[in-house]
Amino acid sequence: MSSACPSTAAVQLCYEHLNGSCVKTPYSPGPRLKIYQYKFGTLLHCCGNLLVMISILHFKQLHSPTNFLIASLACADFLVGVTVMPFSTVRSVESCWYFGQRYCQLHSCFEGSFCYASIYHLCFISLDRYIAITDPLVYPTRFTVSVSGMCIASSWLFSIIFSFSLLGTGANAAGLEDLVSALTCVGGCQIAVNQSWVLVSFLVFFIPTLVMITVYFKIFLIAKQQARKIESLNNKTGRCSDSFQDRVAKRERKAARTLGVAVLAFLVSWLPYFLDSIIDAFLGFITPTYVYEILVWIAYYNSAMNPLIYAFFYPWFRKAIKLIVTGKVLRENSSTVNLFSGIEDHFSEKQKQSKHPTAEPWPAIFPNLKPCSSAMRM
């Protein structure tokens, strides 16, 4: 970062006229502008999650337990983009915190609350999918709207209580008073976490991660078994064709690819950050500032990837976006359109009597499971 600093010998401070100000290590104007342009992705991040929320909450066909979880996940990710990322952008580029010590603490609490909420929503979505795949006939009675609401409430409550009780009370810095005192200056916003709490934080992250990996692996195995059973049944009845076998193979590959992307994106985004937190706590906070900033932003952008992975892959969401962007969502009875028909037919009277009253977000990943039973509808 020093190569980007001005050539003047004078030391720059965050607040030139205040004693105890932090030293400022800014980028030169050119790199600074490029970095701000890159961080402009925050706006796209917010728009993507906002579109998910509007789509699910507006269109009645998408009112389902699973989709309510996805909408709540989008809300958590949206709040990361509104309350956390813009202020972190300024801190990363200017190397100073200009928003006051009180909001520094709130910023850290928001960061923890919304990011943990996002993680636990992803975990509950994986459990929901596992129940739907393993017990499609009883799934509608086991995972109802009330159960979905309980999952949403528990995700939010646990994340908020944990983050605010840890960071809001200062328990994270117990035993690190000398380090915190040395780091404290006007225009700084550094949060130190002691060894005990960094291990607890890692467990809070690791447990839902382990659940997701285990559940998605089982889902993938079940999907392959069901695809093979369908192929075997068609072979026995003499109705199997090469084209059908090709479709089964493609479905298996698509299931593996989509699940792999979901789990891999989650791990790549969050695992480096939490591992670095553990290393820092036990080795005396040796991570350079720029490395820490990179890891933080990789974790932030997982919130931007969630709409792509959990919503943009679904045709119904692309149709919903078209209706929202073109303003058709403002028409009378637009909430009752059928998102599974052609866009041109959305506002016809026949579509209001559609025989598919609820959304089926997962068949885009497991299309071979669609004919199993109407009980699989979300």
UniProtKB/TrEMBL annotation:
Its main location: membrane. Residues 48-310 form the G-protein coupled receptors family 1 profile domain. InterPro entries: GPCR_Rhodpsn (IPR000276), GPCR_Rhodpsn_7TM (IPR017452), TAAR (IPR050569), TAAR_fam (IPR009132). It holds the Pfam family 7tm_1. One of its GO terms (cellular component) is plasma membrane. The keyword Cell cycle does not apply. It is found in: Cell membrane. This is Trace amine-associated receptor 7a-like. GO terms for molecular function: trace-amine receptor activity. Belongs to the G-protein coupled receptor 1 family. Gene3D superfamilies: Rhodopsin 7-helix transmembrane proteins. It comes from Bison bison bison (North American plains bison). The keyword Coiled coil does not apply. It is a multi-pass membrane protein. The chain crosses the membrane at residues 35-56, 68-88, 145-167, 199-221, 255-274, 294-313. Keywords: Cell membrane, Disulfide bond, G-protein coupled receptor, Glycoprotein, Membrane, Receptor, Transducer, Transmembrane, Transmembrane helix.
